[in-house]
Design brief:
Structural class: mainly beta
Number of strands: 11
Low-confidence stretches: none
Shape: globular
Largest sheet: 7 strands, mixed
Mean pLDDT: 96
Number of helices: 0
């Protein structure tokens, strides 16, 4: 199983953009799916976006049209491009690798959207 390290979080104003990166310690080519989750204060962790090994993507309704997940197998990395950010996007964001019978999580990176 790979280890995952997120980066790219920070403070941004409403309407701004951020790109989160998830670097894996090994190949992600054969991993069933890679995803981004987030957890806001007082709320449970939720799936934001996912991408399968075949390139199929899925997004939470709240981020459709604003966020884009992508994968670069050569760099063993997954990205989350976040545009038109809203205060309700404020959360800790976690990268996840989904295998058939297990999951691997990164340590998380904080995103704060505030004016």
């Amino acid at each position: 199983q790979v280890q995952l390290v997120e980066s790219g979080g920070g403070l941004v104003q409403p309407g701004g953009s951020l790109r989160l990166s998830c670097a894996a310690s090994g190949s992600i080519f054969s991993i069933y799916a890679m995803g981004w989750y987030r957890q806001a204060p007082g709320k449970q962790r939720e799936l934001v976006a996912a991408i399968t090994s075949g390139g199929s993507t899925n997004y939470a309704d709240s981020v459709k049209g604003r966020f884009t997940i992508s994968r670069d197998n050569a760099k063993n990395s997954v990205y989350l491009q976040m545009n038109s950010l809203k205060p309700e996007d404020t959360a800790d964001y976690y990268c996840n690798a989904a295998y058939t019978k297990s999951r691997v999580w990164g340590q998380g990176t904080q995103v704060t959207v505030s004016s």
